Request: fold
Amino acid sequence: MQRREFLAIPALAAQVPFETGKMIGIQVGAVSFVDEGVDRVLDIFERTAHINTLFLAVFTYGRGIAGRQVPGQPLPDHGKQEYDLDFHGGNYATVHPEYYRDTGIRPEETRAPDHGDLDLVAAVLPEARKRRMQVILWAEDVWRDDIPGIDQLREIDLHGRRGARLCLNNPYHRNFLLGLVEDYTRSYEIDGIMWGSERQGALGNALSASHGGAPNDAGRVGCFCPYCETKARRQGRFDFRGVREGYLRLEEMVNEWHAGERPTDGRFVSFLRLLMRYPELLAWEQFWHDSLRETYLAIYRKVKSIRPEAAVGWHIWHNNSFSPLYRAQQDVRELSRCSDFLKVVMYHNAAGERMASYIRRVTGNVFGDFAPQETLDFHYRVMNYREKDLPSIPFTGFSADYVARETRRALAAASGTRLKIWSGIDIDIPTEAGHSQCTPEGTKAAVRAALGAGAHGVLLSRKYSEMRLANLRGAGEAIEELGLA
Ligand SMILES: [Zn+2]
Reply:
């Protein structure tokens, strides 16, 4: 789809069920209701933090939003006091195969086996309704590789190998996502759907422009599958051979950087030289993000065609706070064409450790002409917030001022649209041993900062099963002090 075509699509007139009042949401997975009981969990949500909206983690194979505490991390002060080492993941609702067509994998195979026949949505929705809580189903594109047939949906990397993630232009994958949201929207009287994709395109990946562990292998970037190639050729916007050639050259360059070499003109100039020789490097990153937004739009239209009053929106990855390259792709005005809301991640405590990791990765890469602290100063300036120095931030996290600034920025970008901005708030997202931890005061300050800056809501993240009750209470106190309880 061409950029202009995308912009020409009018925003559908949505009857969003979040027009009035502040959305006070929490992300919660099936295991918490199994361990603690539906009534008891909802009681805690209401009494501790005045929650009015549940985000049920209904489809994921990841431990970030489902399952109990990550093994090795301290268990919180509620729930079963043992690790679920047999966590599997998948679809925690009932699978209705009739809504899926031509998906490459059998939808029944995605049914999560963790809790027997439990249907998370059927179990929680009626109880939530009694308490006048809204229910949003929350899914993310984290898969496992042992689902029969899944190979057909995967990305293909620069050297023709299957990638770890699924391709956004793969019709089986697209059909599966549309089947999934059709199933949810037709089978349950939900208030909305949120989907999240914590990924970026080949350029961001080749440059290791995200937080994480070791630097990325620049030969592992995608997607170079036949579906992407055909789509690119059909668009006729750029030379597909140039894309491949450019990324092969970039791979060589990145490998030299990782070996510690400093080219005569420095890394930044060498990179710019390559970018000017191969503008396809940038065009391919744009192509990936356009494909993501097309996926958003397809999901949006599918849900709205069935239940126009349901809200549809997206979890925006924390990388939005770190990488200018990634932030440039999060054009809120453009996103407003296919979204009712954005959950913008601004996890203040985890941000310190994550930003330090991001800075280490890019300073070992395209920012190699800079000292790490200079790289951080550059990013603080460009991203328009300022926190402590590089050695400190893993131990301090980020402040409430960061949350306020990120909230104001997202709201300003969304002004004049109907888009709701919900600040994603960190409650006990695991950090490395010895690094900063969430506190009741810090949580309270972050919630106050988000709502004080005018956010349409806050979404307490990532999952109740890793949150300590005192920190959840910190969020509740902020909501009371702001007169929203
Ligand atoms: Zn592809």
Observations:
- The CA atoms of residues 269 and 401 lie 34 Å apart.
